[in-house]
Design a protein that fits this description.
2 domains; two-stranded antiparallel sheet; Heat Shock Protein 90; Helix Hairpins; 8 helices; globular; 5-stranded mixed sheet; 54% helix; alpha+beta
């Protein structure tokens, strides 16, 4: 009995210290639970947006087909007009499904990001000159503004970085006013390569800027209410790709003056 008493050791922490540690552990646990609840809410909104964006064009396609079947004597011009509209909706669905698949791939634990050593000046200039030859930008003012002494090679997935630029250029074109203006620039700031895509479009309100990268947040809420602009996956994809490169994306914008999307990659 005396041996057991002698083997008793006084706790290293006092009751007060243990209580303090337990209190902070509970705070962390509550914060983690709150984050999980927020993620679950965003997940449900994300799937609700997908359902809406899939249902709308499918319903329109179904209605067009039913109308054409019910009216076999339709003039050829009206049939062609319906077919053109149907084709546009199918293209939209293809883009939406491809975006969903890419997001899912980026989220998976075995995400395939194929990085290689890439001359960033060459990548940016090559992408810009391809856009100059692209008929989609034939009526746009495209400007390249890369600092002369930029000589940076980074380990990146060039296909995914081009996808980032594609999404930002497409947004700039879609939300332009008058003659579209799109500027691609790059420079070094501290230990980061900074790439930006700027436009003179309709801009984004300050209260919406922080939300535009959320998958559950639709573009039409922040840019053009009521327009058929999809579910906003483009900017979510940009954010996810940048995170896979240990980088960031932010936005500076002013309504009716334009937006600037800023990408930062560590050197």
């Amino acid at each position: 009995m005396s041996d057991k008493k002698n083997s008793f050791q006084k706790p290293e922490l006092s009751v007060e210290e243990l209580s303090h540690a337990l209190y902070h552990a509970n705070l962390k646990l509550n914060a983690a639970n709150q984050k999980l609840r927020q993620q679950e809410k965003q997940r449900l909104e994300f799937y609700a947006n997908i359902s809406h964006d899939l249902r709308a064009p499918i319903t329109a396609l179904s209605s067009s087909i039913e109308y054409m079947l019910a009216c076999p004597e339709l003039p050829s011009q009206e049939i062609n007009e319906n077919l053109v509209l149907m084709q546009k909706r199918i293209v939209y669905l293809e883009h939406l499904i491809n975006d969903i698949f890419l997001l899912s791939s980026l989220d998976s634990s075995d995400s395939k990001v194929h990085k290689e050593e890439v001359d960033m000046r060459f990548l940016l200039e090559d992408y810009f000159y391809m856009c100059e030859e692209d008929s989609h930008y034939s009526n746009a003012e495209l400007h390249l503004n890369i600092v002369k002494d930029l000589d940076v090679t980074l380990s990146v997935d060039p296909i995914l970085i081009q996808r980032v630029l594609d999404n930002l250029f497409t947004n700039a074109l879609k939300y332009s006013k008058g003659v579209p203006y799109i500027e691609l620039g790059a420079y070094i700031e501290g230990s980061e390569l900074v790439i930006y895509v700027a436009d003179h479009g309709i801009g984004i309100s300050r209260r919406n800027i922080e939300k535009i990268f959320e998958r559950s947040y639709t573009v039409q809420k922040s840019r053009t209410p009521g327009s058929d602009t999809g579910s906003g996956f483009g900017l979510s994809i940009v954010k996810s790709i940048m995170e896979h490169h240990n980088g960031t994306v932010t936005c500076e914008s002013e309504p009716q003056k334009g937006s600037r999307f800023i990408l930062r990659l560590p050197l």
